[in-house]
Amino acid sequence: MSVAPMMDWTDRHCRYFHRLLTRRTRLYTEMLHAGAVIHGGTERHLRFHAEEHPVALQLGGSDPADLARAARLGAQWGYDEINLNCGCPSERVQRGAFGASLMKAPQRVADCIRAMQDQVDVPVTVKHRIGVDRQEDYGFVRDFVGTLTDAGCNVFIVHARNAWLQGLSPKENRDVPPLRYAVVHRLRADFPGITLAINGGMDSDALVQEQLRALDGVMVGRAAYHNPWWLARWDALYHGGEPCPLTRDGVELAMLQYMEREAARHGTPWPHIARHMLGLRHGLPGARLWRQVWSDHLLRELPAQAVHARALQSKMPSL
């Protein structure tokens, strides 16, 4: 099980929160461009908490030399995996000729994989789509995966939708192109020696369990972010471990303590952290009022402890 890399969401604060809920699920950074990692403040981009392991660094880019340098830095900082993004469909990413557009240049991706593997001892993996635009020829994704396996890549995370590079926003690309799980299952049959995980539309235990009967792993994105308490069951359900020992109140208290430490050490405003836990009480009575307190911009100048007290009060029934 893993939580997907999600731009503007899976930063180190989000990953710290998720790690309170599950000890064994693999966590991913949001996509970081190789050039930014090298030239844009390496520590700012790569710093993470020791508690986050196992944690993977997802890189974006198309230059083998830059990706190799960024991968080496990621390994030096202690990441457990380096993942290359070949699935993002945004216009900005397309202008940089990386993300999903790289699927149209499999030999270049193979060069990138080899360059990164030459620099690190941790696994170098790929996350990609099943096709580009409205091309639904299975041979396209089969040949893409085949080219990369020849280059030495043996772990693939497949978002089971096409990436439409024209006419859809990144948000629409997460919903409009149809899910085609059968394509990923066909890859499993054609490449029995690789590790194959599936991503896209995973929002229930029943669906996750169905996919795990056919594949090696499942990556969950938005459902994990919006309903994070689901993660509290994953260690017991999917990793042979114990469920999360904390209650929701215990998780909130741990996050409050984390906010206070981050404010003291780095000057991090508590709203930058609290935004990631707004789904913690999803589906419970009083969740809306609790969420409103933690997201109220008028309270942002108060210390996190005072906001926590108001949030607790919001859960209590009116007298």
What do these coordinates show?
The chain has helices at 12-21, 34-39, 42-46, 64-77, 91-95, 106-117, 138-150, 170-173, 181-190, 205-212, 222-226, 234-238, 248-266, 270-274, 287-294, 304-315; strands at residues 2-3, 26-28, 32-33, 55-60, 81-86, 124-132, 155-163, 195-199, 217-220. It is globular, with a radius of gyration of 20 Å. Helices cover 44% and strands 14% of the residues. The protein has 319 residues and is α/β, with parallel strands linked by helices. The chain folds into 2 domains: 2-238, Aldolase class I (TIM Barrel, Alpha-Beta Barrel), CATH 3.20.20; 248-315, Four Helix Bundle (Hemerythrin (Met), subunit A). The N and C termini lie far apart (44 Å). It has 16 helices and 9 strands. α10 (205-212) links the parallel β8 (195-199) and β9 (217-220). Its cofactor is FMN. The active site is at residue 88.
List the topology elements:
Layout: E1 2-3, H1 12-21, E2 26-28, E3 32-33, H2 34-39, H3 42-46, E4 55-60, H4 64-77, E5 81-86, H5 91-95, H6 106-117, E6 124-132, H7 138-150, E7 155-163, H8 170-173, H9 181-190, E8 195-199, H10 205-212, E9 217-220, H11 222-226, H12 234-238, H13 248-266, H14 270-274, H15 287-294, H16 304-315
Helix pairs in contact: 4-6, 6-7, 15-16
Concise synopsis of the structure shown:
Catalyzes the synthesis of 5,6-dihydrouridine (D), a modified base found in the D-loop of most tRNAs, via the reduction of the C5-C6 double bond in target uridines. Specifically modifies U20 and U20a in tRNAs. Keywords: Flavoprotein, FMN, NADP, Oxidoreductase, RNA-binding, tRNA processing, tRNA-binding. The protein is of the alpha/beta class.
